[in-house]
Amino acid sequence: VLVESLLVFIIVLSVHAVVWDRFSWCAVALAVQAFYVQFKWDRLLQLGGAVFQFRGAANSGLLPASMVMPLLGVVMKERCRAAGIVYFERFGIVVASTGMLLALFLSVLAVGITKPVPTNTCILTGIAGSIIIYTMKHSLTVSEVIEVLEVLLIFVYLSMILLYLLPRCFTPGEALLVLGGVSFILNQLIKRSLNVIEGRGDPIDFFLLVAVVGVVLLGLFFTVLFIFLDSGTWISSMFFHMMTAVLGLGVIMPWLYRLIQRNPLFWLLQFLFQTQTRLYLLVYWTFLAASACGVVFYQNTKRSSESKKHQASTITRKYFHFIVVATYVPGLIYDRQLLYVAAVLCLAVFIFLEYIRYFRIKPFGQTLRHLLSLFLDERDSGPLILTHIYLLLGMSLPVWLFPRSCAPKGTLPGAGALVPYSGVLAVGVGDTIASVFGSTMGEIKWPGTKKTFEGTMTAIFAQIIAVALILIFDSSVNLNSSYAWILASVSLVSLLEAYTTQIDNLLLPLYLQIMLMA
Description:
globular
């Protein structure tokens, strides 16, 4: 935990040294108080004193999770200020302020339920909170303050509902990241739906907002419904499929139509088949998806022939990382907009299939349970299987969060040109190579972890080679001699992978994106 915290502090101070404004000072204050409060959360988890049941075999992860949204907002603000885009500069300030307020809320919650009351931590949290609120008071407009408070309110209610319904699925840090992100997206969707201006905004951004909110609301609806019904019967399954169609065609589609001012299905079909390159990419991705399904069926055949207790090895699970890299790299090079939309569709499909598996919806629910149980690891201790969704999110978030409006000619200068590749580098290359080489050839273990020195060093080397290949094949990338910063960023994130007990598929790409954008 101490080494993980040290690495996060180095990243925070690196961003602070580059940005050096009131918000970066607030980020430093937030990191100091989150470091102390993290130990209170860890103690609560060990003693079983936390309000909800969190994922075991991991620390609270409060510090690394608390810094993601504030740092993302700070670096986005700086990039958009340099490009002269005032609207997105203000948006970055709102993202940073929202992240700080959500992290402070979790800190106050931990301090409040810790007995006896930790006086020193209370004082530290109070000082950090005062600095952040004072800065927000002098930086945000009234409408922006209301927006931040709306996200906090949505986060509180969403956390109470989902953490109660889904025990042992998240650590406190993962809950902050996932539920904080969903709360922010929901608030953005409500805000944009109430202020629709024809021709304002990119349809693919609206598509992301509506898809994420739609599948979350769908899940909440069926979770409440199946408290009173047995979800495993044919009648319940028919009702599930019927209500999915009703909510999709009667709520989600009209909502998207209001935002993009055209028929969503026609727009999507026209978008997907607009050019010949897109057609080739779709055929190629279909082949890769079929290959991934083939790996699942083949591994399950081996299980049935060898042993009922047979579990997929680490190397077998990393097959999917290789397939995802092969999926994303051509999309990043040839058509990032298509990749953006395809990733949104894939996320919606993954979450919908998880609903079918979780609720045991006929005819595929029980089959999915059997097929996916082979690939479970210690992080899937709750009722949901989330690792494959986290993998997709880790690869997609750098594409979705890339500030296109603040990027002249579609790319950022210097190391920022690699921002969309953050997921490919951190998870697709770094994490995969570290796991494969560490588990097969690693002998020297990092102190206090199961990860090996050889795995980490190989991961850093592999990511440097990947950067060189990106330079060769993607003509839009021009690093402008930012090689030392890229090496430092890759090394810090690879060390963080060795020491964190959080979901690395989600955390590592975001930290690499922050460093590259800074």
